[in-house]
Design brief:
With about 280 residues, this protein is of the alpha/beta class. It has a single domain, classed as Rossmann fold (3-Layer(aba) Sandwich), CATH 3.40.50.1820. Helices cover about 45% and strands about 20% of the residues. It contains 13 helices and eight strands. An eight-stranded mixed beta sheet has the order 1-2-4-3-5-6-7-8, sandwiched between helices. A hairpin with a 2-residue loop joins β1 and β2. α1 crosses α2. It is globular, with a radius of gyration of 18 Å.
Amino acid sequence: MSDPLPDEDGFLEDGPHRVHFERHGTGGAETFVLFNGLAMHTKAWYGFLPRLRPEFDVVLFDYLGQGESSDAEGDFLIPDLARHLAAILDRLGVARVHAMGISYGGFVAAEFARLFPGRLHTLTLSGIHLSHETLFSTYQEVSLAFYAGGESLFDLYTRYLYEKIFGESFATRAAEKLPHMRRGFHDRFRGRIGSLVKLTLAQDPFFASLDANLPGYRAIGAPALVLAGDEDRAIPPRAQRKIAGLLPSCRYEEIPGAGHVAYLEEPELFWDRVVRFARAKDAAA
């Protein structure tokens, strides 16, 4: 089956950087933005587009170091990624969006919501926390230690990652597919490990600024939904549940039997809730 063709795509130029984006749709419907996880790229969403199209337009973009975007020249911050999206939306003539971020993409989506709260219809987050979590810091340190080993340890890292992020049910059902999925991640990033390091390190100032930015998160007025996999071991539900006490108009739900990537593990449950939430935005506000 061939990949869907975007109706519009291009690059945002930001100094030495080129940020790849694409729109599926022609601007005639409300827009979803799907925020990539750390190991993803825009094409990772293609199989899920039929769950949103044609009711919604969909905007996708690669962060620096991902997919078709350029590698970063120097360090960058998560707010930079959020500002890239705002500039892309300006180019596309999109005023407001349904923002849906999973894992690392949830951090970027939350930062977009904090910086540009007036540009949201709704905000959906999955697999993130907005609190200080010691075990997450340890998880990040382990990942960076693998990256420091270069390509010789990168294959081992992908095995470690794929053991950690899935729930037992999906790992059993998809046992034959996991090696292919892991190989795809390995091949996409084995020559761009430096980009993974920079993306990972961008989380440090994000969390260092968390307390100072809490008033901004509390000022997000758009309806928000947190969808946690109840078997998430990377960011446990107890940490994700705290977000509902932070955002002023937020509800928390769990996806039974899912791990860290609930959108992939239990797609029927996950996307049905996302779409129903978007449709009910006015009632939820």
